[in-house]
């Protein structure tokens, strides 16, 4: 059986992240797509495409050799939803980055655009690595 259109779109999203291709990442999202980082205990609010593009552009200079690996995919075609368990690894200005994500992607009727992205992140990585990454980004911005 051929993959569904929404699965093809989800796979394109992974490839776009692996290529660090922000325009392609954004092109796969509907104009009103929202991204929510979870769990809610991290207290991140939802972000629209404009905010998401700014976040990605801010982080991009610190990352090299970013690689997402898809470990598992669950698809509910009638709900127009895909859930992906992913592992990430990259070299960064703050050292090696290793993380896991659980993405829940909701799609439009044609399966070509993501309407909502819920992203569960590793809270330990978030609390321990991101402050180091923020410091490295500040050093990069200052020219060092």
Explain the overall architecture.
- This protein has four helices and five strands.
- With 144 residues, it is of the alpha+beta class.
- It has a five-stranded mixed beta sheet with strand order 1-5-4-3-2.
- Strand 3 (81-92) and strand 4 (95-107) form a beta hairpin.
- The mean pLDDT is 94.
List the SSEs and their pairings:
Elements: H1 5-18, H2 22-27, E1 29-38, H3 49-59, E2 63-76, E3 81-92, E4 95-107, E5 114-121, H4 123-141
Parallel strand pairs: 1-5
Antiparallel strand pairs: 2-3, 3-4, 4-5
Task: Based on the model shown, name its key terms.
144 residues, alpha+beta, five-stranded mixed beta sheet, globular
Task: Give the end-to-end Cα distance, rounded to a whole number of Å.
Answer: 52 Å
User: What's the order of the H and E elements?
Assistant: HHEHEEEEH
**Beta strand %:** 35-45%
Average pLDDT works out at: 94
Question: Percent range for helical residues?
Answer: 25-40%
Q: In DSSP terms, counting alpha (H) and pi (I) runs of 4 or more, how many helices?
A: 4
Q: Strands of the biggest beta sheet: in what spatial order? A: 1-5-4-3-2
Report the structural category: alpha+beta
